[in-house]
Amino acid sequence: xxxxxxxxxxxxxxxxxxxxxxxxxxxxxxxxxxxxxxxxxxxxxxxxxxxxxxxxxxxxxxxxxxxxxxxxxxxxxxxxxxxxxx
Amino acid sequence: xxxxxxxxxxxxxxxxxxxxxxxxxxxxxxxxxxxxxxxxxxxxxxxxxxxxxxxxxxxxxxxxxxxxxxxxxxxxxxxxxxxxxxxxxxxxxxxxxxxxxxxxxxxxxxxxxxxxxxxxxxxxxxxxxxxxxxxxxxxxxxxxxxxxxxxxxxxxxxxxxxxxxxxxxxxxxxxxxxxxxxxxxxxxxxxxxxxxxxxxxxxxxxxxxxxxxxxxxxxxxxxxxxxxxxxxxxxxxxxxxxxxxxxxxxxxxxxxxxxxxxxxxxxxxxxxxxxxxxxxxxxxxxxxxxxxxxxxxxxxxxxxxxxxxxxxxxxxxxxxxxxxxxxxxxxxxxxxxxxxxxxxxxxxxxxxxxxxxxxxxxxxxxxxxxxxxxxxxxxxxxxxxxxxxxxxxxxxxxxxxxxxxxxxxxxxxxxxxxxxxxxxxxxxxxxxxxxxxxxxxxxxxxxxxxxxxxxxxxxx
Lengths: 86, 460
Known about the structure:
Chain A is mostly helical and 86 residues long. Chain A has helices at 12-25, 30-50, 57-68, 73-80; strands at residues 7-8, 55-56. The model of chain B has no long low-confidence stretch (mean pLDDT 93).
């Protein structure tokens, strides 16, 4: 019998909060991140909504990483390897 | 006690691959559902090949009539009605999808589910828009491919069309820049140019149509420039799209210099990437940027999940999608162990002249250091060229030293139809000597095949 992956609730506000927190941890100047984080969070929440908000944490991290990569590769790396870094 | 699933099979994707697989599985008496987010029929039928062929027929006919003075045609008052052409395109799509409607599939015993599918487990799939989840014993993934927009800055802020969506544009633009000089880019560039648009075609490689051998890009490029007035910039990489109050701007690097050009319409023909954004990790299905990873039976890394069509990567075509779905469905039903064999599938570019290729190119043979013989025969050598007044194309055949056809390329009218016998030869090993000795109508385009085959056999 298969195991269903655990799903998470996605909201734009939570995504913005998480991205800002990660950016701060990496010492990325907030002035530059604010410009694109809002846009990314908007896209992520639309992406999740299109999937009925039945999204796993891994799916969410992959999608955020893909969108962030255009702006900051270090921040994208964090999301690509979430759960893998000790 | 085994788990009860909602369905025995769920097919993800309602394009040619998905519908073929669903019908085959339902025909075997299985309980099947198909999930499709957009229109049933898929990209090829609804947004790409069928609408393209319909509209290109219109534009090529118009262009031929405009240039028809040598046949006695007078075109000074010739015009076209663009809304009528769009209506013709919609009718063509309607006819092509008449056996793929929801009603047809339900009559075949297939449950049709509308929404965006997302795996949440190896046997469970969520459907967006419906907020429901379904379970199945087995799945076929046939989600196709989407436009690849990576590597271009500013793409989120500047309006652009794809090679598919440009076919729905409300009015013909005055200027257009096509990014990507592959098959789709050349097709769209010529289509717009034939309708009167000033077109610039930009390609990063040394030549347009870089996946074909060099002479194809050279011959077709000269024709597009001379006949259609298209400006072609090769060795040119688009780096950014910008928009100001006046218009859109495309910034590109050429010869080490950065340049920009203002255009009314931008079309991205930058290739496609497999549509793998459906929670495949949750189902333990391996994939990479080239597509879903499958073995020769089209089984994925998850034993109960197979894949078919454009999501596998590789050249995109309706017949390839249908073929892979038939192979996958047969293997899933356990009736046979069939390996997918892509030998003999054609690559077609619907420009005028048409380009068709089958088998290996010279570049591929040279890379593998394989010995081969080659003949390239200009179309001007046959009668059809004179009667139709078309002289620039050619047929090239590559064969091994035993006379086995390894590959062929034709640039010319009805190239795909003419090349069909060489496709048969490549797939089933029909030797060149049989092709050379078979009767071919002397005044038709297929006469070039016999001529080229004979020349190759007589060559040293």
